[in-house]
Amino acid sequence: MFKHAIIRDVSKNFQNGITTSKLGKPVYSTAFLQHKDYSDALEKCGLKILSLKAEEKSPDSTFVEDTAIVNEDLAIIANLGAPSRKGEEVEIKKVLEKFYNIVESIEKPGTLEGGDVLRIEEDYFVGLSQRTNKKGALQLKEILKTYGYSCSLVKLNKVLHLKTGIAYIGDGNLITSGEFVKNPIFQDFNIIKVDKGESYATNCIRVNNYVLLAKGFEKLKRSISGLGYDILEVDMTEFRKMDGGLSCLSLRF
Ligand code: GLY
Questions:
Q1: N or C terminus: fewer CB in 10 A for the chain?
Q2: Domain spans of the chain?
Q3: Sheet holding 4-8, edge to edge
Q4: C-alpha angle 96/240/177, rounded to 5°?
Q5: How close are the terminal C-alpha atoms of the chain, in Å?
Q6: Mean local confidence (pLDDT), 91-120
Q7: 136 lines ligand 1 (CB under 6 A)
């Protein structure tokens, strides 16, 4: 069970972050409210929320998931691959040191962003992407091995981060879209294929007794409900404009 979530308030400079979406500029006031709803949803899942102040110099810093990998044993501080996001991990490290006795770090020339790291029970999958290089992924693998976790590398061809196109919601159920639907590395799981028109919603998160899902993706909602999960929907329109998904907005542990 998760007990804590770290989130970071949306910067007023949010619209100046990195994006490929071509969905227009995010509206700060709407993003602010959506972020509040997201935080409320995590609280409903039973998490205690630690909310960090917005960092105006780092427009993407609300996407805290990219700054660290956290589990019940340790925290691993990322070395972000996007040049404009370097340094976002500094404050997160200080915060995580209050929760964890063991805090490791990915060191350059390795780069790694948390959005590329998928945990499935005791196994990890790391996306080799524009943001996460092989050196970073192999450092993570070595660290995780010490704590009894396996780690496999997955080459990405199209999406930003591994978790843009894949999510594990427990009980063997893997939500997948695009390039991951037929990837042999995941074929032992119960694959729930997301329709092309709903691929944004693939990035959902299982948090204790709920699955958090982006609002407005009815087919995927029906599929996940059909598997017996309770769903909390969160409107994500403004974060989508900045290439962000539900998992990106928190560190959960
Ligand atoms: N805007 C989120 C990212 O590109 O990292």
A1: N
A2: 4-252
A3: 48-52, 4-8, 251-252
A4: 95
A5: 8
A6: 98
A7: no
Best residue among 25, 160, 249 to mutate for probing ligand 1's pocket (most ligand atoms within 8 Å of CB) is 160
Q: Identify whether the C-beta of residue 28 lies closer than 8 Å to the C-beta of residue 15.
A: yes
0.90 cut: is pTM over it?
yes
- C-alpha dihedral over 51, 115, 73, 142, to 10 degrees? -150
- SS3 letters for 40-84? HHHHHCCCEEEEECCCCCCCCCCCHHHHEEECCCCEEECECCCHH
pLDDT tens-digit profile of 180-231?
999 999 999 999 999 999 999 999 999 999 999 999 999 999 999 999 999 9
Closest CA to 206 of 63, 78, 93, 46: 46
Is cis: bond before 109, omega within 30 of 0? yes
244 C-alpha to ligand 1 centroid (Å): 6
User: What pairing do the DSSP bridges indicate for beta strands 123-128 and 150-155?
Assistant: parallel
Residue range 122-132: average pLDDT?
98
